[in-house]
Amino acid sequence: MLARLASSRNAGLAALAAVVALLPLALVNNYYYDIAILAGLNAIVCVGLNLLIGYAGQISLGHAGFFGLGAYGSAILTARYGWPPLAALLAATLAVALLALAIGRPILRLRGHYLAMATLGMGVIISIVIATEDRYTGGPDGMSVPPLTLAGVALAGERVWYWVVGVLLVLAVWLARNLIDSPHGRALRALHGSEVAAEVGGIDSARHKVRVFVISAVYAAVAGSLAAHYAGFITPAKVTFFHSIELVTMVVFGGMASTFGAVVGAAVLTTLPQALTVFKEYEMVVFGAVMMLTMIFMPKGLVPTLAALAARRGKSP
Amino acid sequence: MSAQFLQFLLAGLTVGAIYALVALGFSIIYNASHVINFAQGEFVMIGGMCTVWLANAGWPLPLAIAAAVLLAALLGLALAKLAVEPARGASVVTLIIITIGASILLRGLATIVWDKKYHALKPFSGEMPIHIGGATLLPQSLWVLGVTLVVVLLLSWFFGRTLLGKALLATSHNRLAAQLVGISVRRVLLVAFGLSAALGAVAGILIAPITFTSWDVGVMLGLKGFAAAVLGGMGSGPGAVVGGLALGIIEAMGAGYLSSAYKDALAFVIILAVLFFMPSGLLGQRSADRV
Amino acid sequence: MKHRAWFAAALLAAATATQAQAPIRIGTFLAVTGPAAFLGDPEQKTLELYVEKLNAAGGVLGRQLQLVAYDSAGDAEKARTFAKRLIEQDKVDLIVGGSTTGETMAVVPLIEQAGMPFISLAGAVVIVEPVKKWVFKTPHSDRQACQRIFVDMKARGTTRIALISGAGGFDKSMRAQCLGVAKDHGIEIVADESYGAGDTDMTAQLTKIKNTLGVQAVLNAGFGQGPAIVTKNYRQLSIGAPLYQSHGVASKQYIQLAGGAADGVRLPAAALLVAETLLDSDPQKKVVLGYKRDYEARFKSDVSTFGGHAWDGLMLAVEALKKAGSTDKARVRDALESVRGFMGTAGVFNYSPTDHVGLDVSGFRMLEIRKGDWTLAR
Predict the structure, then answer these.
(1) Contact A285 B108 (CB under 8 A)
(2) Looking at the structure, do residues C132 and C270 belong to the same domain, yes or no?
(3) 0.80 exceeded by pTM
(4) Which of B15, B83, C24, C267 counts the highest number of beta carbons within 10 A?
(5) What ipTM was estimated for this complex?
(6) Cis peptide before C109, with omega less than 30 degrees from 0?
(7) Any chain A CB within 8 A of the CB of C114?
(8) Which of C195, A60, C73 is nearest to B216 (CA)?
(9) C residues 179-238 near A, CB within 8 Å?
(10) pLDDT (tens digit per residue) in A289-305
(11) Taking the CA of residue B212 as centre, how many other CA atoms within 13 Å lie in the half-sphere pointing to its CB?
């Protein structure tokens, strides 16, 4: 029993690692690599966000704010103050973690759409501050970001970044799965089922909710820093509530309470708009229709629905 | 000083009335189905754009307005029937994503059926500013406030005195009990969506002469309407109105007396502060969970 | 035997002919939808129209032109991805695009690294200051707009003004430039208000300006529907001081939206908008009148200076291709940088290694809106 559990967990991770390793065979030019990198960065954020939404049953419509703070934190410290990029990344991530800790407790007392509104408000406030304080942030037109350097070597070029993001994605998924299978993860699932029952069972729901909130914020901040260094440029468009909604959509689309679902959701929804450009002015219509139809017919999300189908096929003689 | 205050107040009330209408739309749908309809803003857009289009094509204004409201209501019914009903068993988050998809779809259709430009609607009764105590008010603002008041009164009559309205209220209190007494909750859902869409369209038409309309005005207005509904207490009719007016006034006062750059941020800070002390909004019911 | 030789020769000739016929690919990414559709829509229409006309007249260097277009919707991230797609996947020969400054700046690192000639259609001076080897632009910079406005104000004896701007990139950039050069023109900015993107009512900010002592004129550095709302609110509050707009509203849409409130508003804009009323001796008349008539005949809607920037960009690209005699990117870039005396819709272009804007302030006319139409200000 234990062996089966362990192997199924590792099987998923191994599959992901295999995909990351073999995908370059299909990536014919830098444009394809670019899309893969963007999908990977989105996937990292979504894996963290999925812990909050799928497992803990909370909601956040403001995670682009954490992404943006990580990105701008790195950008400002490296571009304006000359910090080494890794130090800036750590500092920005730490700052975001502290912020999430500070506002997590009061925000997570709210439930349902009140929580949605509070996180949305938080995200909007962050994006307004970033867009307004143009002396530091370059304002609505954004600012350039120096490249990420590792021991003096600048990380540049799509191929290099592909491996950086790929390895970090596998790491992020591994960490998330470890978390889910830990006592903390079980506590989260318990309070997702029924917060009252969990408290009765001795789980400090507030502490656990805040902890997962901080963890998901950290995921977003790290991805944000990397995205800023990769593109060499950051604008407030990445901090808007549209981007927050996009992230939530990726998580739900791919399948809540499924780490791999989050990865698949991010990958599909990052590449889909590129594929839909053939529809020209009908692109928005097609995109909206695809979203609606997928959620209507696969309400649990892509991966859980497909997994259930596969399981049923497997069972029938 | 007080003339300035009055100017800010009038501006805040005008835009607040629009937020109130949009917020009412959110609350009505929430009551019928516990869904947050993220496409609500698009109905506002459809109201304005359709009216402009028909008016430019030569239709008399009252007819154009009626047709636009009807179109919005029909789209609301379509949304309920084709998108929300089939996904009835799904989780709330899934339904939210469906409505987000619907809003993208509607915006895309708007750019194809109409266009991507901004359009102005002729004000209903001219543009001569009215002077009141040192401040000026546009006649269109009087229309906005007047029609909103009439709509709120009509809604309270509807929910308080008609059978259908009471059925909607009953469903919002306890869905199962409502079904047990013979209320068709499916029909309630359809009515709720149709009604909210019509409300949104009315808001869009009222505000179009003042602020112009285009295919994407729905996004910001939808967001503000949602914020207003939550501020006032999601699901509460009076809460939606209070929330809307409050949000409008906070924005105007913030722009006037504090920093105009941060006025939106100020509005959200205040909403967050209210939610921290009153987690169910200003007039919302304190929710109790059955264990 | 002979037949086979003839056959082979014919095939070879056909193959070489098809090679020579490979189209010249011009890439573009524009904000056709989104908050900057004001810009991107006429830009795309202009590019499509003139690529068609050029092809009908035989193309360039004996080859047809092919336009590869993407809609970036005003989003810098999308612009970056599409620029990468144009460079890597579509392998275009040059790029004319980038409706907004944000989108342009986001692709600059890519452009420089790939060595792709790029003509931007965006406004802010930061695009060409410092000069970037592969990046050129066609609109007047926002600093030039400020200077033109201040020159006009000073000539009318105005020295104390109020500034109101929006939250967008164009707004903030122009505001910063105006604050920077005001002193040089003897202008003092005594009030500085701003409104948010998508705001629907600016009476609060304008009331504050109205109550500020000594304001002789108000400058609205904005773009999109914001300035139209500011204009309507301005008249509603009966503010007597003259209202100046930026070249960001140089499109009939602004007049349609603001209605009668736009009468009396002054703005710097290209002569394109008053093409018919220019004197026959005006060197700009031929080009601007030609473009205006072509555009209005095809699309049945009024020209805007934004479409004009796209015309300038495309024609400059064609000029550079002809001068270079090939699509070799380095040769085309050098040819572009050596363009002198080229008459565009915005004025005369003189590019040089230190000047990738090419325009001087003389192409900027001061216009005034009267009875819902553009006229040259007295």
Answers:
(1) yes
(2) no
(3) yes
(4) C267
(5) 0.84
(6) no
(7) no
(8) C73
(9) 196
(10) 988 898 888 888 888 88
(11) 29
